[in-house]
Design goal:
CATH topology of chain B: Ammonium transporter fold
Number of helices of chain A: 3
CATH class of chain B: Mainly Alpha
CATH architecture of chain B: Orthogonal Bundle
Radius of gyration of chain B: 21 Å
Shape of chain A: elongated
Number of helices of chain B: 16
Strand order of the largest sheet of chain A: 2-5-1-6
Order of helices and strands of chain A: EHEEEEHEH
Oligomer: heterodimer
Largest sheet of chain A: 4 strands, antiparallel
Number of domains of chain B: 1
Distance between the termini of chain B: 51 Å
Chain lengths: 113, 435
């Protein structure tokens, strides 16, 4: 079992979801996140004065998957979120120790699927 | 000529002040100015409705458009709009009084009071279009076509109907406060503009079905509806341009009010029956629909007729919204059903419920006048809508072919506030930009 955490551009969520659905991955958690990478934000102007915005809006996507789904999920996220420009985001993959479905008490791979 | 008008404002101020000592004239002037201030404040109503019914990431953009179109409309109406609308010319267009230099004054109140009232109307016609084309149009494109609407399209149509020499005015076409001149023009220009612009990204799924894109602040939108309703008490009763014995303005104010109430209730009931819940945004659209529909007949019909007109207007708006989704014309605030469709209905209502004893040229259908008035109303409204749509289609296509009508996909998804203005409406808040 793996936990896939991806930071993506907010406006790419629609595209990423569509690709994930095509790969039959329907379960995910999405949260608003702020962050910055190498480019350290952008500038806005407010009443004529430049203003540095160094934390950018991102989305954090969390998806727990069984081993067989790791590759398709990664491919789908990359396909949906990639624009080949700076700021497309990153994907982290973590080992998942356990998973419990609260309603039934199922554990492990059954609880994820 | 324009230069002298700007350099010599005193000359403008003098024009039209014939009988300034009369107290009746003073009261009438006060009434027209007060009405002008109310109509001006409708701009705030439009702003709040449009901002409330669109998404947070585009709120700065829509309010910038709202602010600027009023400013552009007023300057254009000063420089050439008024001359085209009320100047001497032929039945099609006026051609004297550019820059308000020795401009004609068809009213009894001072020229500048009349001008301010008319200028506020011109601003309203221009701003209607902003809502329908919201969330995806370039700011520069918006400014460009606002100039054309307020300097050319609205004044020409106004000349046909509200100038004594206009060809529709001569036929006895009845549009008391502008269901055709302001609302049909704004609404049907919105329709062509939106059709040419295309729907917002994600509005229609791959299966072709419409997806809801909820507005970000229903409280703001409902505040906007009440501001518009309040302003309408200047828009309709103010169009008398005189207090008289008070009977006419009382009738008009009551008719305006009743139609708004009836429109809201019927839209609520229809949406409840067909979609299961009394949807507030549709109820508010119904209220505005009633106001638009009563704008032309407000002086010519009885209060009972106003209620019927409002009830029908509310139904039209609900089915109009569904119809637009069917043909995939994406109008985020419902400007086409509210202003376009009900502008047509209100104009026709004059020919159905209108009464000669209240100042109309002929009795309407239900008062034994036959189809004559209804025919004139239909002819006038169709000519106006076709003219405005054809002219603006050329303008929209020209903008599309040169510097572009629509922002890039990336900018649209990220929001026009950042893309067009480099600022946010709600700095410090987390706004979802995932749609």
């Amino acid at each position: 079992m793996k936990l896939i955490i991806a930071y993506i551009q907010p406006e790419k969520l629609g595209d990423v979801k569509r690709e994930l659905y095509k790969a039959e991955v329907f379960k995910m958690s999405v949260t608003n996140a702020l962050g910055c990478g190498q480019q350290r934000g952008y500038t806005e102007s407010y009443r004529g004065v430049e203003m540095e915005v160094n934390l950018l809006k991102k989305l954090r996507l969390e998806i727990a998957v069984n081993e067989g789904f790791v590759k398709p999920t990664l491919d789908a996220i990359i396909k949906g979120a990639q624009s080949s420009k700076i700021g497309d985001g990153k994907i982290f993959i973590l080992d998942l120790v356990e998973c419990v479905r609260i309603r039934t008490g199922e554990t492990g791979g059954d609880a994820i699927g | 000529m324009l230069l002298s008008a700007i350099l010599l404002p005193a000359g403008v101020l003098m024009a039209g002040e014939g009988d300034a000592a009369s107290p009746t004239l003073g009261i009438d002037t006060l009434w027209v100015l007060l009405a002008a201030f109310l109509v001006f404040f409708m701009q705030a109503g439009f702003g709040m409705v449009e901002a409330g019914l669109t998404r947070a990431k585009n709120a700065c953009n829509i309010l910038t458009k709202n602010t600027l179109d009023y400013c552009v409309a007023c300057l254009m109406f000063f420089l050439c709009g008024y001359a085209i609308m009320f100047g001497n010319g032929n039945g099609f267009i006026g051609w004297t009084g550019f820059g308000m230099n020795s401009a004609e004054n068809p009213s009894k109140v001072p020229l500048l009071a009349f001008w301010l009232f008319q200028a506020a109307f011109c601003g309203a016609a221009a701003t209607i279009v902003a809502g329908a084309m919201a969330e995806r149009m370039k700011f520069a494109a918006y400014l460009t076509y606002t100039v054309v609407i307020s300097a050319v399209v609205y004044p020409i149509v106004g000349h046909w109907i509200w100038s004594s020499g206009g060809w529709l005015a001569k036929m006895g076409f009845g549009d008391f406060a502008g269901s055709t001149v302001v609302h049909s023009v704004g609404g049907w220009i919105s329709f062509v503009g939106t059709a040419i612009l295309g729907p917002r990204i994600g509005k229609y799924g791959e299966d072709g079905k419409p997806r809801p894109m909820p507005g970000h602040s229903i409280p703001l939108a409902s505040l906007g509806v009440f501001l518009l309703w309040f302003g309408w008490f200047g828009f309709n009763p103010g169009s008398t341009l005189a207090i008289g014995d008070g009977a006419a303005i009382s009738l008009i104010a009551v008719n305006t009010n009743l139609a708004a109430c009836a429109g809201a209730i019927s839209a609520m009931l229809v949406v409840w029956k067909f979609y299961g819940k009394p949807d507030l945004s549709m109820t508010m659209n119904g209220c505005l629909a009633g106001l638009v529909a009563i704008t032309a007949p407000c002086a010519f019909v009885s209060p009972a007729a106003s209620i019927v007109i409002g009830l029908i207007a509310g139904c039209i708006v609900v089915f109009g919204v569904a119809l637009l989704d069917k043909i995939k014309v994406d109008d985020p605030v419902g400007a086409v059903p509210v202003h376009g469709m009900n502008g047509v209905f209100g104009t026709l209502a004059v020919g159905i419920w209108g009464q000669k004893s209240l100042g109309l040229a002929r009795d309407g259908l239900l008062h034994g006048g036959g189809l004559a008035q209804l025919g004139v109303q239909a002819l006038g409204n169709i000519s106006v809508c076709l003219f405005a749509m054809a002219l603006m289609a050329v303008v929209f296509l020209a903008i599309k072919g040169t510097f572009g009508l629509r922002v890039s996909r990336e900018e649209e998804l990220r929001g026009l506030d950042i893309g067009e203005h480099g600022m946010e409406a709600y700095a410090g808040f987390q706004i979802f930009t995932t749609q």
